[in-house]
Amino acid sequence: MSAQPSLLWSGDRLVADDRPGELAPLVVADSWLVVDGRARALSLHRERFVSSVSTVAGDGAADAAAAVWESALAELPPRGAWFPRVELRGTGADRTFRVLVRPAPTLTRSVTLTTFEGDDPRTTPSIKGASLEALEALRAQARADSGADDIVLLSPLGHIAEGAATALMWWRGDILCQPAEEIERVDSVTARSITALATALGVSLSWETTTPGELDGLEVWAVNALHGPRIVKRWVDGPPLAELPGRLALWSKRLDTLRAALAPAPELTTP
């Protein structure tokens, strides 16, 4: 376990990040919630991070990413709530891996959204981290302007793609819906997990090309690795929304059943 909040990959191990100066641009990032040494869908987070590194930096960097991931897990405290982040920053000779050991922020059950009206700020929509810093700046501006917690990004045709920090899902009666697969966005681990649970439970699923206005009167969720599913309580200058009592709590509980230990417990030996 490390007392260092920021660590850098140096050859074959993580060391304290004590280098002054500005950080290289963020290229790939992944975060997940850890509570008392347990996390949801950790293998999917690892797969997404390593695969994204491979896409942008090649197989050699992907091998390093896998080693960084395993070392990062060893740095996490066994107790408490944490929201670590692994990063690939820079390119070529300036490329470096960084690990942030961060306490988890306070969790919430609801969120306010607003539709982003400008040009798409995402440079590589399918890679988590590539535009994260730009998106965070836009979220901060939206929070100051309208009190929204997240911005909703649209496809070139005006269909819902994703939030800056969330994936979006909605209910049409008993049908769980999400953006059509051809709409470019990050492959959300939490949305994948909820979809897998819905499939196992026999819940009907739909992938749609939908504008914000077409969600009028529906229950909408904003989901991510930190909070799980959250109810969208308000959409600034957007559609009025609804909530079926008890449904969010039920699915949050179902999602929590997927928590597993970061590492298997050591086997007991008989003397």
Automatic annotation (TrEMBL):
Molecular functions (GO terms): catalytic activity
UniProt xrefs under InterPro entries: Aminotrans_IV, Aminotransferase-like, BCAT-like_C
Pfam family, one: Aminotran_4
Signal peptide: none
Protein's name according to its UniProt entry: Aminotransferase class IV
